[in-house]
Amino acid sequence: MIQIPEVDLSGILPAIILSAAGVVTMVAGLFIKNRAATIGGIISAAAVLLAFAANAPLRAINKVGFVSMVTLDGYTWFFNLLILFALGMTILTSLRYLSDEGMDLYEYFVLLMFAGTGMMFMVSGNHLLTIFIGLETLSISVYVLTGVLSKSSKSSEAALKYLILGAFSSGLFLYGAALLYGASGSLGLPGLAKYFQSGSFSLMGVVGMGLLLVGFAFKVAAVPFHMWTPDVYEGAPSPITGFMSVGVKAAAFAAFVRVFFESLNALQVNWTNILWILAVLTMVLGNLAALIQDNIKRMLAYSSIAHAGYILIGMIAGSPDGVSGILYYLLAYTFTNLGAFGIVTLVGRKGEANVYLDDYRGLSRTHPALAVAMAIFLFSLAGIPPTAGFVGKFTIFSAAIKAGYIWLVIIGVLTSAASVFYYFRVVMKMYMESPDREPERLRFSPSMSLALVISVVIVLYIGIFPTTYLNLASESVRTLF
Amino acid sequence: MVDVQHYLVVSAALFCLGVIGVMFRRNLIVILMSLELMLNAVNLSFVAISRYLGSIEGQIFVLFVMVVAAAEVAVGLAIAVAIFRQKGTINVNEINIMKW
User: Fold this and answer.
1) Interface mutation target, options A149, A154, A156, A226, chain B, most CBs of B under 10 Å
2) Do A136 and B61 touch (CB under 8 A)?
3) What is the pLDDT of residues A419-459, one digit of tens each?
4) Is residue B98 part of a domain?
5) How far is Cα A325 from Cα A397, in angstroms, rounded to an integer?
6) What is the ipTM score, two decimals?
7) Angle at A58 (CA atoms; ends A53, A62), nearest 5 degrees
8) pLDDT digits (tens, 9 = 90+) for A71-113
């Protein structure tokens, strides 16, 4: 007689809703002749709203489900929320983008939904298998989305580079998992934790941890594992670049933090030292390389590398304050960067012809509201009050100072001061310079304007009244410690 | 007597060959093959360790890895075809519009 374990689908309901929406869109798309993409977008948006509702109960519970393959707790809840925000905003900005490019691709939304499903499994994974499958579901969908502009050779090249380096890093991640399995005899995070806490662990386990760390560092784009980021961000369609820079990064950091704090906590001294070096390299190189870019997508790519460095500081601090700082930072960064890439999409116009910094000259005269919004996003990225980016940097840096990493914070503050230079260069171009030729009018759409308004309001709101959200973040990380 | 160490050494050697292949070969198809080699080296470790420990977990993992590898290579070949149509080459040194 086979024992059938109790199955409770409610915990992973948000992920189920997203994947169901993906399947429905895929089938419906076959039968719809005109405007299939719009209908796909509407189905996806509805699924995102439903998933928001299905996600709400997770906040209060703390348990493992599916034979302890997934953890359902406040941490999962928080990251699911971030993923849903990122998905929702990407859908809003993509609708106009697709119709501008003349692409009636419902597959676009199918892949977006599957990527969201993968992310949710990745952040809730309590077993290296769940995390790996989530990671691959996410990555394979995003490889295709990167290369979706079939006529653009940049897009195909970006997809190729992303695929090769992504698969390479998955290989390293897997080998790390195999070595950890060999050393500890378990692939579940609690089993690994027990093994390392016993104090007598083999070299094999430590090497496994190192490979796992390299795999994650690739996914969050930490220097020196960042080589793919600028090219992929430049070549991918602008809304997808925005999605990658927040969604993929948030999911990768969520799994990174969960694995390293929950199961490899006993080795904290070892990995903190490695992360210290990675964080410094990431902040310095990311910010310096961003200074010399003239393509705004490439500039934002280097800036997103630099932001990974600041988030790593929160991990190095190692305290509940540091990790809740990461959560708040990612929340702030999600809205800021999605908003910024929304404007990049809008200003880019058809065929992404206007993605250079010079194309932003005189934007304040032609579109004053848009210029103000862009300025707010750039201030938030640079970490200037009263925006959300400032509070995020402040919480992470203060947690690191409390943990005694003074030099790390000094480097962080100096590099973030350097970053002001390249963010303000865009602001200068918008307000101080005038274009040499009259640019084509921008074509707004209701969904795009809605996405931008939401981003601006939230970036300012959680920057001015951060307390509720900081408490929310520290509540969410409680289960990790 | 062939015990688990021998399998692990072979697997490590295969993995390194895969890594070297990805880094130094210039033909896209060979790079994809090297990626597969890396994943298969991992599978070998998993199966050997699983047998050694007497736990089934590792073998289940291998099944998932094989599925993922197949999906990945399908996408990889599709991208290779797209690039070949645009450029007429699959030498990765010539696929370089974006730099720095």
Assistant:
1) A156
2) no
3) 999 999 999 999 998 877 777 778 788 899 999 999 999 99
4) no
5) 9
6) 0.96
7) 175
8) 999 999 999 999 999 999 999 999 888 888 888 889 999 999 9
